Amino acid sequence: MSKLQQYYTLKNLLNHNEFVENIHWKTKQFDANQTIIVEGDSHQQIFVVLDGCLMVSGDMEMAGGKRMSPGLYKLNKGEEFGHFCFFDDQPHCATVKTITSCKLAIVDVQKLKIFFEKHPEIGYLIIQSWMAALLPRLREGNKRIVNLLGWGLKAHNIDKELV
Fold it and tell me: Percent of the chain at pLDDT above 70?
């Protein structure tokens, strides 16, 4: 592995001598059952799980106005989340809560972009690793949507009308 390739993840970038803690990023400890990201909110931070486990969940309204937050997937040590804010300023599409106590690295997106401009070869490797992590989640989400749509069509006997 070349010296450059060692920075293929944001977690590894935390060790780069020009990507400085308390300037480009900071660490923060969270207790179990704390909300880190709220669906619908916006901010310019990407998170790296240094220790602990978190749950990504959606928010939906059920009959009678009841709300439910089904878990979509777990995040464990070494994983990253909140990447979308690097690419746009849209609100978060999910909520992230700690399951256990967690230590997170919180990366300032604007400072990360400036770092990537100085080091585009590192930026390329990290964005490539993000795509490798995000694409399986997107594919799984697409499968779930299709399965849910099929279930809904069958549950309401609409599937028979489509044949």
Answer: 93
